[in-house]
Design brief:
Blueprint lengths: L5 E8 L10 E5 L2 E5 L2 H8 L12 E12 L2 E9 H10 L15 H13 L5 E7 L8 E8 L10 H12 L2 H4 L2 E10 L4 E6 H6 L2 H12 L4 H24 L3 E4 L2 E7 L11 H11 L24 H6 L12 E5 L3 E4 L6 H27 L1
Antiparallel strand pairs: 1-2, 1-5, 2-3, 3-6, 4-5, 4-6, 7-8, 7-11, 8-9, 10-13, 11-12
Helix pairs in contact: 8-11
Length: 370
């Protein structure tokens, strides 16, 4: 690739990074870059076709330069010109009014931690990935660590015991899922509610179930069921693939759930009391049994079971749909099964991921059914 084929762009801390340790930068509305990790690089370079539906689009490597002004780092990258040009064709940035109030800039937190530990932030290679929420006006994002265990053979025995003990005493141990970050656009206040991994460690099972319910019940009932059902369908397919694939162990991976919280410009009707009443009544509802996926042509015919929540949707819904999705992310500790020293430990870990997926499907199904 010649110099004429590249464009120098400013890389900004990715405002919608909600978790993880690796720094993520935005280099265009459609492309972000993540600090290089050899395991993750090898995974994306050899990504099986059957996993592409469930992972971010991989766009190659890019070198990012770091400069300092008044002790503040700034980042620039020379990226292939087609990435910037293609993004501009599909995304009109001026149409997107980003609401930043309430957003916790986790990417900047990671940068500051790097500076504290190393003294400066230097030039690095990054992985270029598709921005999963780049086309969303008001991204609502939930990062869930998946599995009952997150440590593999690359962890010392002492560190492994400490991490396993901590995970066992969290929802990772009881449900196989744990909140590691969240941004949720709130229609009423026109700002964001953010939670980080530290909040996730404090949640018990009921608390996590309530956060999941709160995350999706941010709009009309019809959209909630449509969006959640779409995610359930994809989780079923992912469960089937992970239960049969024989290539990788996904140590420390996460599930990223997201949808557009934009309401089409509709004025917010103050029905918070009804929502609060609905949430309180259903907070302790037990999860449904794992079952088949509701066909798409039946999604909009599911009857309402709650009078209070039906009242919220008594006006015509102008919310956008079709944006909800889920991806498997974070492959910095992913290893080939053929490279595992302790195969039995790997099998135990794999069962923990399937356990987490099943529980997440159950919880989401209970939201659809309520």
């Amino acid at each position: 690739m010649g110099k004429d084929d590249t464009e120098t762009v400013k890389a900004r801390p990715f405002i919608h990074q909600v978790g993880g340790r690796a720094v993520m930068l935005e280099i265009s509305p459609g492309t972000i870059c993540k600090l290089f990790n050899e395991h993750e690089f090898q995974f994306y370079e050899n990504l099986p076709e059957y996993l592409k539906e469930f992972t971010p689009q991989y766009k190659g490597l890019v070198s990012v330069r770091c400069n300092y002004h008044d002790d503040t780092p700034t980042f620039h990258a020379e990226v292939p010109g087609y990435i910037v040009r293609n993004t501009d064709k599909h995304i009109n940035v001026e149409d997107f009014k980003e609401v930043k109030t309430g957003l916790e800039n986790w990417s900047m937190t990671c940068i500051k931690r790097g500076i504290e530990s190393r003294g400066v932030w230097s030039d690095h290679d990054y992985l270029m990935l598709g921005n999963l929420v780049g086309s969303l006006k008001m991204p609502c994002i939930l990062d869930l660590k998946i599995g009952t265990k997150q440590t593999g053979d690359d962890t010392s025995e002492e560190d492994k015991k400490l991490r396993e003990h901590k995970s066992a005493n969290s929802t990772s141990g009881t449900l196989g899922i744990r909140l590691t970050g969240m941004h949720m656009y709130q229609l009423k206040s026109n700002n964001y509610l953010s939670h980080n991994k530290h909040y996730g460690w404090t949640l018990n099972e009921d608390g996590l179930r309530q956060v999941l319910r709160q995350f999706f019940q941010n709009c009309c009932n019809r959209k909630v069921r449509l969006e959640v059902t779409r995610i359930i369908s994809k989780l079923h397919r992912l469960h089937n693939i992970l239960s049969t694939q024989d290539m990788h162990y996904f140590f420390g991976s996460s599930l990223l759930l997201f949808y557009d919280g934009y309401n089409g410009g509709r004025q917010y009707a103050d029905q918070s009391k009804d929502v609060e009443e609905y949430s309180t009544v259903n907070a302790d509802q037990s999860a449904s049994a794992l079952n088949g996926t509701i066909p798409y042509d039946e999604e909009c015919s599911i009857g309402d079971k709650s009078d209070s929540f039906r009242n919220i949707c008594q006006h015509e819904c102008h919310c956008e749909t079709g944006k909800a999705d889920v991806r498997l992310i974070d492959f910095g500790r992913t290893v080939l099964k053929s490279d595992m020293k302790e195969r039995s430990y790997g099998v135990e870990f794999e069962e923990g991921i399937l356990f987490g997926l099943s529980n997440l499907i159950n919880i989401l199904q209970s939201i659809v059914d309520s």
